[in-house]
């Protein structure tokens, strides 16, 4: 509900997490962290507070955030602000021309400046396996951890893809253990039947 492209309610997410048996959930709403902060104490799993931010030509994700990233900043500044918080810089759904992905030259620029930690090697809404495979190859070639995500815009998609990895306590340990992880998951982008619903508007108190 805090993300502009999603209407999943906290109760729906609670049910989805319970059914999927996810141990750790990265909540990365667009331009907001208030939902993740609120749900950290409500869900039956550990929550990693994150944000997906539009930066020029595409999007970048920050994980383990303590402060919201403001809209309107550029790619390099966004990555630096994530790192300044002790967070993890993650590139979602790369190389997919149908998505708001970073240009390959932007990803190369981040890598050249040592400002990216991981890349999504499986995104469940990326329909072409060749694109996921390209992301895996890029991650291996550039010594990045290779992640996986359900990109769940509906509750039933939660857990469609995830990274099976050793437990962690800190962002640094997360990075180390993610390199030992194993991608699990499949493509999930079923037709979404229209249903009438009213979702309360959300004002992010952390947006100021």
Give an overview in words:
The protein is α/β, with parallel strands linked by helices. It has a domain of 131 residues: Alpha-Beta Barrel (TIM Barrel), CATH 3.20.20.140. 27% of the residues lie in helices and 21% in strands. The chain contains 6 helices and 8 strands, in the order αβαββαβαβαββαβ. Strands 1-2-3-4-5-6 form a 6-stranded mixed β-sheet. α4 links the parallel β4 and β5. The longest helix is centred in the middle third of the chain and has 13 residues. The chain starts with 9 loop residues before the first helix and ends in a 23-residue tail after the last strand. The mean pLDDT is 91.
Features:
208 residues; alpha/beta; 6-stranded mixed β-sheet; two-stranded antiparallel sheet; 6 helices; 8 strands; 21% strand; globular
Which strand order spans the largest sheet, edge to edge or round the barrel? 1-2-3-4-5-6
- The whole-angstrom Rg is 16 Å
Enumerate the spans where pLDDT stays under 50 for 5 or more consecutive residues. none
CATH homologous superfamily descriptor of the domain at 55-185? Metal-dependent hydrolases
Main beta-sheet strand count, sense and barrel state? 6 strands, mixed
Distance between the termini: 18 Å
Strand content: 15-25%
CATH topology of the domain at 55-185: TIM Barrel
Q: Could you say which structural class the secondary elements and strand pairing correspond to? A: alpha/beta
* Succession of helices and strands: HEHEEHEHEHEEHE
User: Could you estimate the helical fraction of the residues in percent?
Assistant: 25-40%
Q: What's the β-strand tally?
A: 8
What's the multimeric state? single chain
